[in-house]
Amino acid sequence: MLGAKRACKRDRHGPEPRKADTQVHRYSVRGVPIAALVTASVAALLPGCGDGNPPEVMRSGDGPGTAQWTVLAYMDGDGDLEPAIIGDFNEMEVIGSTGSVNVIVQMDRHPAYDTTNGNWVTTRRFRVERDPDEPGEPRDGQHNLVITSPVLADIGEVNMGEEDTLVDFVEWGMREYPAKRYFLALVNHGWGWRPRSVRTRDAGAVSARGVIFDETSGMDCLSNAELRSALQRIKATRGRKLEILGLDVSEEALLEVAYQVRDSVDYLIASQLSEPNDGYPYDSILHRLTNHPKQPLEELLIGLLQDYLDSYAPGQHTTGAGSSVTQAVFRESRVEALADAVDQLAQALRAKLPDSAPDLVDIRGTTQSFSEDMYRDLYDFAERVMAHFDDPSLDALCQDVIDRIGPGPGTALVGEVHATGSSGFPTTNVDNAHGVMIYLPHLPTQYLSAYASAVDFAADTQWDEYISDPTAL
Predict the structure, then answer these.
(1) How many angstroms separate the CA atoms of 439 and 111, rounded?
(2) Distances in Å between the alpha carbon of 457 and those of 28, 144, 258, 336?
(3) How many Å apart are CA 39 and CA 309, to the nearest integer?
């Protein structure tokens, strides 16, 4: 055990990536030829795919009883992603709520980035209803950009980067729209764990770290500690974990983030890259949920990964973050075992210092990186260490990390997808992506000391001691 989104949208980190030239889509047991499995395994897993019998959809008011799902979308449009987030809402209205699936939104807005829909600037709550001008199923092309769902409540201007605001929304949503399962989506910017200087219209340049940045509240955000606390409070109210946490933001597929929420959610969806401004394809996600509301959870999540990948067309430029995409689903019950394995590997790597320092620095610098090179692929790092050293005991520790990542039954990942974009557009090559990032600066001199107190993973393992060890130079 351990010690103590579409053409009008956003880069959930700044500006977007969308569809891409597919390289590899991984969501199967390690050791099986992945690319050959994609079409067959997805079709086999998803009810209604190829069986000629799509299930009945029960629309709102068609029958009594508790819903199968309530989707709680916490949409912070109080910033530069306001146009993208309005587009997300419009995607939700392609499908809307049904008798089996409630789609509940809390949306804050900014006065300046998007003036459509009456340019209201407070925070409103909605039960999303199908837009009568939409076809009721996902389609290519521009959606109606007018929000047609009725307002349930206008709660005034609130700080979406405040822990209490998130807890209040989720507890209200669970109370007013009870369901057997819950999917909480946080929609805005994300930057993993590290502090980042952000320049805004309202607050100037500020240093922030976390997810959900509220510009008119001084760019306040949910820190990793606040996110953990909020989810634990929600768990206490409900009496059990939320089923799915979707971080529709950038750079959150970190082991550190998954470890932070391991006790509060069953599954985490997150991206290694900066997401395109378009983010999640909400029309496809809700189409899947409303047509298969009783689908086994992991089968559903595999389908959502494919929906995400399919929403970014090969070679199409994306708004905000280039044209490569990544997405992964973490099985939170297995994250602590992966952290244990990384802790053991970190101790072994420190033991090889300083003699092997030049080799390990080279490996750190060549490991798959993403939108920021301080975040690197954990699986790829372990593979490179194994390939370089002739050390059976170290090989075993690296293999243990790889095996615990997966994806496969009982591993930390249910699945992951990635695609390297077209060379004609700004892009990041993600051919060696495997779904799980970790903080791994190239040199120990680049280590940020704030890491040690920013996330529980750093406090509970010796990973930070390894990456900051001055003898690693």
Answers:
(1) 36
(2) 27, 43, 9, 9
(3) 13
Confirm if 267 and 243 have CB atoms less than 8 A apart. yes
Percentage of residues of the chain with pLDDT beyond 90:
63
Q: Are residues 240 and 150 both part of a single domain?
A: yes
Q: Can you name the residues that pair with 102 across neighbouring β-strands?
A: 70
Question: Strand, helix or coil at 212?
Answer: strand
Any idea what the Cα angle at residue 281 is, between residues 224 and 297, rounded to 5°? 70
Q: Residue 111's pLDDT is what?
A: 86
Q: How far apart are CA 437 and CA 434, in angstroms?
A: 8
Helices (H) and strands (E) in the chain, counts: 14, 15
For the domain that residue 241 is a member of, what is the CATH number?
A: 3.40.50.11970
Range from 58-72, 354-368, 405-419 carrying the lowest mean pLDDT:
58-72
Q: Please give the radius of gyration of the chain, using alpha carbons only, rounded to the nearest integer.
A: 21
Is residue 162 predicted with pLDDT exceeding 80? yes
At residue 217, the pLDDT reads: 84
Indicate the pTM of the whole model: 0.86
Q: Residue 241 has which token pair?
A: 């974990």
In a domain, 17, yes or no: no
Residue 107 located in a structural domain = yes
State pLDDT tens for residues 193-246: 776 555 545 555 444 568 888 888 888 888 889 999 999 999 999 999 999 999
Query: Contact 420/430 with Cβ under 8 angstroms?
Result: yes
Helix (H) or strand (E) holding 300: helix 297-310
- Cα(461)–Cα(249) distance, rounded to whole angstroms? 26
